[in-house]
Design goal:
Mean pLDDT of chain B: 70
Strand order of the largest sheet of chain A: 1-6
Strand content of chain B: under 5%
Shape of chain A: globular
Helix content of chain B: 40-55%
Low-confidence stretches of chain B: 1-8, 18-23, 187-243
Low-confidence stretches of chain A: 1-18, 608-613
Radius of gyration of chain B: 28 Å
Radius of gyration of chain A: 26 Å
Strand order of the largest sheet of chain B: 1-2
Order of helices and strands of chain B: HHHHHEEHHH
Distance between the termini of chain B: 57 Å
Structural class of chain B: mainly alpha
Largest sheet of chain B: 2 strands, antiparallel
Oligomer: heterotrimer
Chains: A mainly alpha, B mainly alpha, C mainly alpha
Number of strands of chain A: 6
Chain lengths: 613, 243, 265
């Protein structure tokens, strides 16, 4: 990789002088706060997104732990022998008097204590359970997974990887962050005034009839509506950035695969999100004005809502997973120092996933849609397997004969391959109409989408964070403890969710606060797995805090990556590069290129004819 | 690298987009704009005229045109108009082709959305009759009509509820008088039909007689002047015709 | 603000220099040329327009499904609308689209006065559209109150039972109440599903009217910048171009809404 020499850089309006890192504070505390709050620098906005997303991840995680804890000792009514005032069993006609008690309302009792009220019926306990899992789902989907990789890592690294100074519309980028925060505040307000019990999908008529005298649902729905705008603006910005701001010499097939994945993601965001906008708007009208479009009593159709909802929310599943594919496509070649296998196949597979995503939304509705629709959607659903399998095979082929370094990001990438394969393969029985009718709305579905969403996206988000952390903050972290955290997360994850495949296939329905005793053992195992998961993430948090406080300074290119972001300093300067870079080699040409900032004598190139196949 | 970038490399135009960039500053001639406006206005007249002509044909020859005729004619004209606006007012003809591609992809997404939703919802009732037969106007739980806590809770179709209320208030004769005036005021008002509203498929026993209970005996009598009055007799046969 | 502030375009800060604003414009620091920035802005705006189209796609899809389920209700409901108002509004919007396109052309040719005048006409057309929509369509249908000059009023002369604002508005007994969903209270309707028709009608036209208002705001903003700073000229007219695209989209949606709502039979 070469750079323009100074004189030419000046002609191009480049900044030939060295600058401080983007993290250098501007003046005092308040000046720095103001600087960050009004910044249009994509790196700062990326870091702000990262903080916001991690905070929401913590909230959503707490809700998940609450759900799992409730299931440790589920809500149920029991017949017990009534005791008199003297502590003896009450007897009537020679038989003990029985009375009904409600046990296991851990969440309900917590909520009642919070509100200063007594729990009066089993419904209230169940009700709080419903609120907790809705909270978990809505936060994790709308506020964590959708913006996680695109808005934080994407914002930070897309311009860097393209060799640009910023995204195409920097002020729009900042606006998008503020919209995200506004939407999140709406959702949090909704939670604070009592939460929502509709499930994150807001299906009618749950969402139009429950909590009739409260504004909770409207606030939560409006929150999701507002978050949609943030998603649209980010996607739009990235599409234009990829089209218009690639560094000189970077053609479409010289882009890193992360960019391809983000480009596909952004297309989905732009094309699918507006539909959820109008859907949620109509839902608000339906709830506030009862306009009847989703209400059979007035001639509407609740299944129409489901079509509207899933037309967005299925493509958005790929908004969640495609960036993860991109991150894996970066980590695997860098940490095995080998050219990615089948670059174009992986790139086109990203676009293929984006296209297929618009054809398969009906597979969320096999139980509610008509037979013809369900059959067609079931058939189309299997198309998804093609591009995703292409990617997985290419990653594995890349690993083959690579010099693999088991760094934390690489460890996570390998875990991803394992978890995502399980998630993907368990999707097949769910996509097949006949088996789905047995598994529909059971814990099998819960386990499946956690393997994909969490084992796919969140694990990869953490992997990407470890991969780019030195670049983002200029500090190394303790690899040993990071690896320990990774293993705890991996084990905790599998203990939590693998058990749920058994639960689901045995018939445990999702979203229930209670269950029959036969499921108890598996539920207990799953709950302790979730605690393990929590410990794992806490280890990572401590490792990151330690790194920020006491980490050793990171070199510009700690892993020997070839993409343009490793060309910049760690952390990058305000304008990213001292000179506008010119691309002269592909992003994964490990066999022919010495990585930037590496010494050629430390890096013997294997590209000799004898080694070259 | 597929191409040696450094050899023929223009720093100001690294991806050879120059030709498009020039295009984006195209100035359309004033004559073209005026011409397009004239065509658009003419097509507006045409679409109104086509709708009137369809009505005239139906009235004059006692025909019932299939419903798709109205939709297809109107949408075809609207598509032509929209294409003209897109090409000349929105400059797609002159600007970077990527803009056209963006728009076409958006239409593709729209098409998929419409197609699959319609595919499912339009076949659901036919295949699974059990699901289709349960819908009744007004529902079963009652509806609060109006705003606020004092809104009356009514368990019948809004149309029926308000009709009965009005008749109770002003009496059937006055109701008929007002209806004649109000309905006559409309542009070619259509006669009431016994549409059950359920996918237009004949479903006897659902809401048949919905109006018999409350409607005055001869709703047609205020409409002698209406060009559709002769259709009264055959109305129940007409309802399920279109699809 | 930060050193990375992209508002490197200080139009308005330096009015005294005598240079028109469009000549003083400097592209953002991360762009190589002004043309690339313009091209990117146009692409970005087209992507935004795609999201707008897909927003309305939900409404069109809802319309299609509901019309498929309740064709009679739609035929009946449509007959309450007067196609003449719809056609007039179509003409108004088409003319405003023309004036918008002509305004961009005027700025491209540095005809500042013509450009401003055309922008003003576009704005007035938008206003006219809203006045027709609200005064002659929404208000009578919702409340039964007609403005005295409404030509439809003479049909209902014998039912007028109230006046307001010194005879400016007249109330026709029984005409109002054609409201969506639970607010429906019209007593003379003929189809059990008519409230649903009104829901679709108000959602579609209401959200469209909201877009008209947003478009008019953008036009007013462009006009202001044109008057104060001479902000648009041959080499820089990005904002007025994109406002135009938005306005044409509003027109485009109406081109489809008009026959779908007014011309059903």
């Amino acid at each position: 990789m070469t750079t323009l020499d100074n004189s030419r850089a000046h002609e191009l309006g480049g900044h030939g002088h060295h600058e401080g890192s983007y993290l250098t504070p501007k003046g005092g505390f308040w000046a720095t706060v103001w600087d960050w709050a009004t910044t249009v620098d994509h790196k700062k906005i990326g870091v702000m997104y990262l903080c916001a997303v991690l905070f929401m991840f913590f909230l959503g995680g707490m809700a998940a732990l609450a759900v799992r804890t409730e299931l440790l000792n589920p809500v149920r009514t029991e017949q017990v022998k009534a005791l008199g005032a003297d502590g003896k069993e009450l007897m009537e006609n020679g038989k003990p008097v029985m009375k009904t008690v409600i046990t296991g309302q851990w969440l309900g009792d917590m909520a009642a204590w919070w509100k200063g009220q007594e729990l009066t019926s089993i419904d209230q306990g169940n009700n709080w359970y419903n609120r907790a899992f809705t909270l978990h789902g809505a936060i994790m989907v709308f506020m964590v997974i959708i913006p996680s990789i695109p808005a934080s890592l994407g914002n930070f690294f897309i311009p860097l990887m393209l060799g640009a100074k910023d995204v195409a519309f920097p002020r729009l980028n900042l606006l998008s962050w503020y919209i995200y925060v506004t939407g999140s505040i709406f959702a949090v307000c909704s939670i604070l005034i009592g939460g929502v019990d509709t499930g994150w999908t807001f299906y009618t008529p749950y969402s139009t009839t429950t909590d009739a005298d409260h504004a909770n649902v409207v606030l939560m729905v409006l929150g999701a509506f507002i978050l949609g705008f943030s998603s649209i603006l980010t996607g739009l910005n990235f599409v234009v950035t990829v089209h218009k701001l690639r560094a000189p010499g970077m053609g479409w097939f010289d882009m890193p695969l992360f960019i391809w994945a983000m480009y596909s993601t952004s297309i989905i965001q732009v094309l699918a999100t507006p539909v959820i906008g109008i859907t949620l708007l109509l839902l608000c009208f339906e709830r506030i004005f009862r306009i009847g479009i989703f209400d059979p009593a007035l001639g509407g159709d609740p299944v129409l809502y489901q079509h509207f909802f899933w037309f967005y929310s299925h493509p958005v599943v790929y908004v969640m997973i495609l960036p993860a594919f991109g991150v894996i496509s970066e980590i695997i070649p860098v940490h095995s120092h080998k050219k990615i296998f089948g670059y174009r196949a992986v790139a086109f597979a990203s676009l293929g996933v984006a296209l297929v995503s618009f054809l398969v939304w009906g597979h969320h509705m096999f139980a509610s849609s008509g037979e013809l629709g369900a059959t067609v959607f079931s058939a189309l659903t299997f198309l998804v397997a093609i591009p995703t399998a292409v990617k997985v095979f290419n990653w594995i082929a890349t690993l083959y004969k690579g010099s693999i370094a088991l760094t934390t990001p690489m460890l996570y990438a390998l875990m991803f391959l394992f978890l995502f394969s399980i998630g993907g393969l368990t999707g097949l029985p769910l996509g097949a109409l006949a088996t789905d009718l047995h598994l529909h709305d059971s814990y099998f579905v819960v386990a499946h989408f956690h393997y994909v969403m969490m084992g796919g996206t969140i694990i990869t988000f953490v992997a990407g964070l470890h991969h780019w952390w030195p670049k983002m903050f200029g500090k190394m972290y303790n690899q040993f403890w990071a690896n320990v955290g990774a293993w705890i997360v991996f084990i905790g994850f599998n203990v939590t969710f693998f058990t749920q495949f058994f639960l689901g296939s045995q018939g445990m329905p999702r979203r229930y606060a209670s269950y029959v005793d036969e499921y108890h053992t598996l539920h207990v195992i799953s709950t302790f797995g979730s605690y393990l998961l929590f410990i794992g993430f806490m280890v990572h948090l401590l490792v990151f805090i330690h790194s920020l406080v006491a980490g050793r300074k990171a070199p510009a290119n700690p892993w020997g990556g070839l993409t343009l972001e490793w060309e910049a300093a760690s952390p990058p300067s305000e304008h990213n590069f001292d000179h506008e870079p010119i691309v002269t080699h592909g992003p994964y040409d490990y066999e022919t290129t010495v990585p930037p900032h590496w010494n050629a004598k430390d890096y013997p190139l294997p590209a000799l004819p004898a080694n070259h196949h | 690298m597929s191409t040696p970038a450094t050899e023929v490399f223009n720093e100001l135009d690294p991806h050879g987009m120059g030709s498009y960039t020039k295009h984006s500053h195209h100035i359309v001639s004033g004559m073209t704009l005026k011409l397009i406006l004239a065509i658009l206005l003419a097509f507006t007249a045409l679409t109104v005229g086509a709708a009137q002509a369809e009505k005239w044909v139906e009235a004059s020859f006692a025909l019932e045109l299939p419903r798709w005729v109205n939709v297809v004619v109107a949408m075809s004209i609207a598509t032509v108009k929209a294409t003209l606006v897109l090409m000349f007012f929105m400059l797609l003809r002159y600007s970077n082709p990527i803009n056209t591609i963006v728009f076409l992809f958006c239409l593709l997404a729209f098409g998929l959305f419409l197609f699959f939703t319609l595919l499912d919802l339009s076949t659901r009732g036919e295949i699974n009759e059990i699901k289709a037969k349960q819908v009744e106007a007004g529902g079963i739980g009652g509806i609060h009509y109006g705003w606020g806590k004092n809104a009356p809770l009514v368990d019948k179709a809004p149309v029926v509820y308000w009709r009965e209320r009005m008749i109770a208030e002003i009496g059937p004769e006055e109701y008929e008088r007002r209806k004649a005036i109000l309905v006559h005021g409309h542009e070619a008002h259509h006669e009431p039909t016994n549409s059950t509203g359920n996918l237009s498929i004949n479903r006897p026993g659902l809401t048949a007689g919905l109006f018999d209970a409350s409607a005055p005996a001869a709703p047609a009598h205020g409409h002698e002047g209406s060009e559709h009055a002769p259709k009264q007799d055959g109305k129940t046969e007409h309802a399920p015709a279109a699809h | 603000m930060t050193t990375l502030d992209t508002r490197s375009n200080p139009i308005g800060a330096d009015v005294q220099s005598g240079e028109p604003g469009w000549k003083r414009y400097v592209p953002g620091h991360h762009w190589r040329t002004a043309d690339e920035e313009f091209d990117a802005c146009t692409l970005g705006f087209w992507l935004f327009l795609a999201t707008e189209v897909l927003l309305f796609a939900g409404l069109f899809c809802g319309y299609t499904i509901m019309r498929y389920k309740h064709p009679e209700a739609f035929v009946n409901g449509s007959s309450y609308l007067d196609w003449r108002w719809g056609a007039l509004n179509t003409v108004v919007l088409l003319i405003s689209s023309y004036t918008m396109a002509a305004a961009i052309r005027a700025f491209q040719l540095d005809r500042q006065k013509a450009g401003r005048l055309l922008l003003a006409i576009t704005f007035i057309c938008g206003l006219g559209f809203l006045v027709i929509k609200f005064t002659f369509e929404y208000t009578p249908k919702l409340s039964g109150w007609f403005i005295a000059i409404d030509p439809a009023l003479h049909h209902y002369a014998s039912l007028v039972d109230g006046e307001a604002l010194g005879g400016l508005f007249k109330h026709v007994a029984g005409y109002g109440g054609k409201a969506p969903g639970q607010f429906f209270s019209y007593a003379f309707s003929s189809d059990p599903w008519e409230p649903l028709w009104w829901s679709i009608y108000y959602c579609a036209t209401g959200i469209h009217a909201l877009h008209v208002i947003i478009g008019m705001t953008l036009i007013a903003w462009c006009y202001r910048r044109a008057v104060l700073y001479n902000a648009y000229g041959p080499s820089h007219y990005t904002m007025v171009e994109n406002t135009g695209l938005y306005w044409h989209l509003v027109d485009l949606i109406w081109i489809f809404l008009f026959p779908l709502l007014y011309l059903i039979h």
